[in-house]
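Researcher: For the record, we're logging two predictions in this thread. I'll number them. Prediction 1 follows.
Model: Prediction 1, sequence and structure:
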Amino acid sequence: LIGRLMFELPEEMGLIAIAVQQTQGKGRSGNVWLSPMGCALSTLHITIPLHSNLGQRIPFIQHLVSLAVVESVRSIPGYEDIELRVKWPNDIYYSDLMKLGGVLVNSTLIETTFHILIGFGFNVNNSNPTICINDLISKFNKEEGTKLKPLTADCLIARTVTVLERLIDIFQEKGPNGVLPHYYKYWVHSGKQVHLYSEEGPTAWIVGIDDYGFLQVHEEGKGVESVHPDGNSFDMLRNLIVPK
């Protein structure tokens, strides 16, 4: 629906579709994404000028959205220590243990404007099939003796979009260095050692993200190399970076 509408609207008009449940959501590599009740699910349309900081670094958008989801919770007073984190390139995690959300970005360049469709979904009030944000809040309350209230999907979608607008403005003004320190604060990879290609593959250490949003790894004897997000996947359970 949004894909058909987005070219008909004035550029200054934003557009978002929100679903309560998904049976045919799209994931990476053409995967079908099933989403039960209790998830925050939406597709957002934004426009980015080609000749802008972000327009020259479009892969960064998925990182900004992942960060915005985490910030939508952790920027609420009292919720700063809820263990919600970002995983390169486009996932939202509970610590480094379990996935509870993801981001998918599609872009179309028309003349000098990128039309970006951002799909994002994350578990808010559904404990199955993995874990959800309200489970983390409940766990935190038990451990810390606090009385934080559960959150709603509507609230977190609205907060995510608001935070994303702010992150885009910062990126357009200051470039990657304006947002990367904040991104690193919440990501799961700091100082992690990984294997490349297979469990017997070469060992590398994760260094950070380069100016175009690609993961930088330091392989012994080879220096720092960048790993492209669209051709590789990060298997957290096996600590592997593998070609898709």
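Researcher: Logged. Prediction 2.
Model: Prediction 2, sequence and structure:
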Amino acid sequence: MSNCELYVKGAAVWLPHPDLVWVCGLLDTDFTTTPATLAVIMQDGERREIVVKKVEELPPLRNPDILIGENDLTTLSYLHEPAVLYNLQMRFCTKTTIYTYCGIVLVAINPYEECPIYGPETITAYRGQSMGDLDPHIFAVAEEAYTKMERESRDQSIIVSGESGTG
């Protein structure tokens, strides 16, 4: 199946937006190369006609609803900028979860407020658990590294990267 065959009526796509960065719309027609256009119904009901000069210019497809808010970005069907940003937004705004995995990488969103997720009960919950058994958390990363270091005698490194003051 070529990528073009996924662009059928009812498929959800992401379109750039000057203020919101990306907005979702539903295809109102199947994509055809003659004429090379897409009719998209936006969330506000507006109908847009998009000219597609090259197949590479097709808008990114949205992940199925069942994958929205996944705790590991690598499980998404489509892994591109709007999919990652939307998934992180859903986890942070809807589920109030600041941590998300991307494979073995832990992505954190700074909530700019104190979070009650670092107490002794949380430490106990993650102790002895494998990474991925529980929701993403910095304690899961620490437990994984400690286990590999202590039980398997494997050297470990944890890299913390981000804004000033991250570490």
